[in-house]
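testing teh design pipeline on a random one, pls ignore if ur not involved
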């Protein structure tokens, strides 16, 4: 068990040392690394981060509130004399 632990630690240290030497140019030719992917353009992650979405949502909410208002009831009859 201890031997296996020593071998694993030695392998990790060796890997890191070789990687460091290649990055510094001290070892042989460094392996060509693929360029990282370009980052996608910055955009809102969620709808609540998008100001135009929130503005449109508020507009729709106000319109629905206006449309849902019940009409005013007619004035109640006072029960005055009928002629």
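output:
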């Amino acid at each position: 068990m201890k031997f296996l632990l020593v071998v694993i630690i030695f392998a990790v240290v060796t890997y890191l040392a070789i990687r460091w030497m290649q990055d510094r140019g001290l070892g042989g030719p460094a392996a060509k690394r693929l360029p990282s992917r370009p980052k996608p353009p910055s955009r809102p992650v969620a709808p609540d981060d998008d100001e135009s979405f929130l503005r449109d949502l508020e507009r729709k909410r106000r319109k629905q509130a206006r449309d849902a208002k019940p009409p005013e009831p007619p004035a109640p009859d006072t029960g005055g004399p009928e002629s």
